[in-house]
């Protein structure tokens, strides 16, 4: 396959994964990232969605994972859910100043997830896309504009190397079911998240950037149920198809009953990956 394939889970801190359900009996919580990063090649970092993290946290996550491990970073809900992408210049600066640049070469794509109530608005989207930094150097420059919500002593506004950045968008409103939306993503180099939600939200299946981004939220309901062998065979075929020409990131979010990490390992095995 021409592109790199990274398979993982959406987050790694779940009580239901403990006591032998996925994490070995007796494994202390502070070693859970270390454990899961030896079984898969990437995870989505969810804490960044709920609140601004600290540079020290990002540095700790880097130290706990192998050198070739990659984090996808979920954009802050203050930007996507509360502001709904409106007037987000300063919130974006705060987000990029919060420590994400400390991930350095382990920084993968940014995931921007819109809430179900947010309808398609091409002008709002285009304005947001134009604000997004496309390199770590641009991100550091943007981070300098953070406000008092993120004090200087908590901010990281420098980067050691200038690396390209990728962005993916997940949508959940039926008005996005239009070819115009896909054209807008392509024009800005933003990946459309192929999101399987057991029929809960509209399903969009297209590749709009130089990488593909897949999220599997559950085969029975949101966050519930293990994918069947036939379903994983299907998704393995899709990943192979995408990977012929580009990198692929795939994450399982069916976390409620600890299915996600097991399904990630099963999908990796189908693709001939070491799990």
Query: What general outline do the C-alpha atoms trace?
Result: globular
How confident is the prediction overall: mean pLDDT?
96
Domain module count:
1
Number of strands: 8
How does the helix and strand content classify structurally? alpha/beta
Radius of gyration in whole Å, from Cα?
18 Å
Give unreliable regions as ranges. Answer: none
Which percent range fits the helix content?
25-40%
Q: How much β-strand is present in the residues? A: 15-25%
The H/E string reads EHEHHEHHEHHEHEEHEH
Oligomerization state of this entry? single chain
- Order of strands side by side in the largest beta sheet? 1-2-3-4-5-6-7-8
CATH architecture title: Alpha-Beta Barrel
CATH class equals: Alpha Beta
Count every helix, treating DSSP H or I runs of 4 or more residues as helices.
10
Keywords summarizing the entry:
10 helices, TIM Barrel, 275 residues, UPF0759_sf, alpha/beta, DUF72, eight-stranded parallel beta barrel, 32% helix, DUF72 domain-containing protein
Which helices and strands occur, and which strands form pairs?
Elements: E1 5-10, H1 32-36, E2 42-45, H2 47-50, H3 55-63, E3 70-74, H4 77-82, H5 89-97, E4 107-113, H6 122-131, H7 136-143, E5 167-170, H8 179-188, E6 191-196, E7 211-216, H9 229-243, E8 247-252, H10 259-270
Organism: Saccharothrix yanglingensis
Protein name: DUF72 domain-containing protein
